[in-house]
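Hi, here's the filled form for the chain we discussed.

Project: internal
Contact: R.S.
Residues: 524
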Amino acid sequence: MNAGPIRAVRRGEDGFTLVETMTAAVVLVVAIVLAMTPIVVSMRAIDHAKEIDVAENLAQARIEEARSLDYEDVGNPGFAPDGVLERTLTKTVGGRSYTIDTEVRYVGAATGLDIVPQGGDGVEGRFDPGVNYKLVTVEVTADSGRIPPVEMETIVAPPTVGALDDVAIVTVTIDRHEPYDPSTAADPILRLVGAQSYLPHDTGSQQVFPDVAVGSYTIEFFDANGWSMHPETISSGANEVDAVAGWNATRTIRIYEPVSLTVDVVDEDGDPVPNATVTITDLADGRTVTNPAGDYVFTDLVPDRYSVTGTAPGYLGDAVEVDVPGYGGGSTATATLVMRAHTVTTTAVTFRVDYAGWATWFTHGAKVTVTHPVLGSWSGTTDEWGEVTLQLPTNESGFQVVAETEWGHAPAATTIATGTGPQSEYLSLGKPPQTDRFAIYDGPVGPGGFYRYWVETWRNGQWQWSQSTLLESNALGKATFIVPEANNRRVHIRAYCPGGIELDRRTFTMTGWNRSWNPSGSCP
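And the returned structure, exactly as it came back:
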């Protein structure tokens, strides 16, 4: 049997090979995938846009809800300002959850926010001292986490927005004195104490007191949280403030956490010395504290580095320096003074203090301090004749003497040596640069009389008074005090007879010149 002839198969006539078929399928799948990707991305974008749209609608609805409320109801329950707007809500839209956070806080000129260009209250040329607008902030977050939070704000005005003519605002900044490690304690809560008392709108390092009645106030602690007012704040009057209508009075107060120092006073054998007098000096500002004999524990100290000196009958003194670091490095510190037995004989040294060498202007109430690097320190206050007598060791040299006052004089300083008998020393106080000297001539107040003076400064469109300063009169009725030069100040002086009866008064406007005054009248 013969086979028939074999015919060649031509491509294109009877079909595709397997490889060609598979290649075509792969190409088709890739084309489909490439076509679907933009569609998927677009669908996701549309989904995100829907979430954003829902979040914006929820935020806008919350804003409109706040706007529809009475002014007194705009707030968060239990917060300041109080109101009816819950702080946090959850809503479900289209099967998806959204969290709505609503925060309401006071704003206005006190927070640096000008509601309108003319001023905080919208009245041309008038300042709004209050914090009487309410800022409503709404933030909507989708629980899916696929879109960023949506935030909207609105400001709700009080029913009336006229300038407040009878109130002021007081802003107090807190400066922590922490020369060592910082404390973890919270800042104290302050209050203003005057004819009325006020608590701050906000706590923290800057505390604002809005709507304060016009008057004079003292800044105190409402909740100290373990802090104390720094002595510099009190001595400078920074804790006193005048609330002036329509103005923002600012103050900065320094605070510290009190610490203690225990001094061990021993002799060369290590045995306690029972009746030593110990003095500590804050090396940062020169403040000194001397405890009664035998009392070696110092409390309520400002954290700083201190010089510690001690004297005792029959002993040579000793001096050391010690860090008293505060709560960052420990709330207590210790120091040891070693006293050497020594028999000391003394002699009377009389110091006379005057102003600038003027013979009859001897200074009543000047503090004279004598220190010796080994023997100890002595101090006293001059009497109405400008004199103070101290008992100092005989036949010794190297005594450092300083005379100073609280009335602005430049201190007088000298070095002396003692002999075996009584002696007198003279010190003349000076006038620092860029200051004005006020001299009160032979006044009728006499011994036992005194003066008071105030410095009044033009600030924020109004005269503001300082705290009064007591000025001692010498035996001739004379006294001097010094104030910094300034052309925007007035000085008020009043003369008082013994017993505090006012005799005469005078006001000076400072013009950069020294001034003098001779009070008139007579004391009973």
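Let me know if anything looks off before we file it.
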